[in-house]
Specification:
This protein is an alpha/beta fold. The chain has 15 helices and 13 strands. Strand 9 and strand 10 form a beta hairpin. Helix 5 crosses helix 11 and helix 13 packs parallel to helix 15. It is globular, with a radius of gyration of 20 Å.
């Protein structure tokens, strides 16, 4: 869809990347690191000073004690972290539960390593926009667990749906997994984009689950710099050890200047992460206000930088064909929800990325409001 947007000079609310730059002070730290000669390999697990800082921040944010030497691994982007994690932990015949709609890298890597994907559908009930009921399909998850099930993949805040895992949701999952050996791989790349005075709840905060859990985080998302490809993987030492065995032959080390810059910037800006949620809530609220006259049916966005709309009232086309038509004929690119799911969806849904400049959101909203 981004390629189609470029070809037709359309406004691009499709691919999930910000339109604005990372903080100027962070950019300056990169320049300084490069000029200072920090351009060679970092240690395979990442710069120790950055891992130390992350461990302290996890303690401050989440109340979680993490050993920075053995339990945090810096990687060149969260997708690389996911790839190394699945490659290390999924073996031929292992079943992995994936909650659909889901980020599109999970299933291919599981299958590439001989695993079997067991898909369970998240509720997309438009009558539950106030989140009076949990959308997470715990009864269905419990029903598909068997002796071959090894892992369940969680994504919170969720891409593409924008849902978040509450403490009660983690408790429900822990109850289901209590008498099994199933572990949790938790994609938490939008952890600093939780809105409405809510707090991100990590799998690492749940004592029972954390003993067999992996959390994937992203500096690219947090710094509004997705092209920097920098993230980290946090897991108990015995799991991290296995992930590192794969990772050292996949990339060996994340890029050094960005690690140096991340450390220096975060050390000097201890409250930076709070500003990320504030900015994204401002962008979300701006976009929702601008498109309100269109009367779209929307899923609640509790986190991430995506809003999902149901568009059956607008078209007879499939979501994919409508997304293409919007891009080519109206100059607005989105992502059809069918790209994230193998199941038949309860409607036609499009995902909009609102991490854009206000002028871009205004232009996009004008198009949306002209459709019906």
């Amino acid at each position: 869809m981004s390629g189609l947007a470029a070809a037709h000079k359309a406004i691009n609310l499709s691919q999930g990347f910000p339109e604005f730059n990372p903080p100027v002070a962070l950019q300056e730290e990169v320049f300084q690191a490069i000029s200072a000669g920090r351009n060679q390999y970092a240690p395979m697990p990442g710069l120790m000073e950055l891992r130390d800082l992350l461990a302290q921040r996890m303690k401050d944010w989440r109340g979680v004690e993490v050993n920075p030497e053995t339990e945090i691994t810096l990687v060149p982007g969260a997708t690389a972290g996911l790839y190394a994690t699945f490659s290390a932990l999924v073996h031929p015949g292992d079943e992995v539960i994936v909650l659909d709609p889901s980020y599109d890298s999970y299933a291919p890597v599981i299958e590439l390593n001989g695993g079997v994907v067991r898909r369970v559908n998240i509720s997309m009930d438009l009558e539950n926009v106030d989140r009076s009921a949990s959308p997470w399909p715990w009864d269905e998850v419990k029903a598909v667990i068997n002796s071959k099930t090894k892992w369940i993949v969680i994504n919170t805040p969720h891409n593409p749906l924008g849902f978040t895992m509450k403490q009660s949701d983690w408790d429900d999952l822990a109850s289901i997994l209590k008498d099994s050996d199933v572990g949790v791989i938790s994609d938490e790349v939008y952890e600093h984009m939780v809105m409405d005075q809510q707090s991100h709840v990590s799998v690492l905060q749940h004592e029972q689950l954390a003993q067999k859990a992996v959390a994937i985080s992203s500096f690219g998302k947090t710094f509004h710099a997705t092209g920097w490809k920098l993230g980290y993987v946090t897991a108990p030492a015995y799991i991290s050890q296995e992930i590192r065995k794969v990772y050292q032959f996949m990339a060996f080390a994340a890029n050094t200047p960005m690690q140096v810059a991340a450390h220096e910037f975060l050390k000097k800006n201890p409250n930076y992460e709070a500003s990320v949620s504030q900015l994204m809530q401002q962008k979300r609220d701006c976009f929702l206000s601008l498109i309100a006259p269109a009367g779209l049916k929307l899923l609640p966005c509790e986190g991430s930088y995506f809003v999902v709309a149901e568009v059956s009232d607008y078209t007879q086309l499939s979501d994919l064909d409508y997304a293409k038509w919007l891009t080519i004929e109206k100059g607005l690119a989105t992502i059809p929800m069918s790209a994230f799911s193998k199941a038949t969806l309860p409607g036609k849904f499009l995902r909009f990325c609102f991490a854009k400049e206000d002028q871009t959101l205004e232009k996009a909203a004008q198009i949306i409001c002209s459709l019906k």
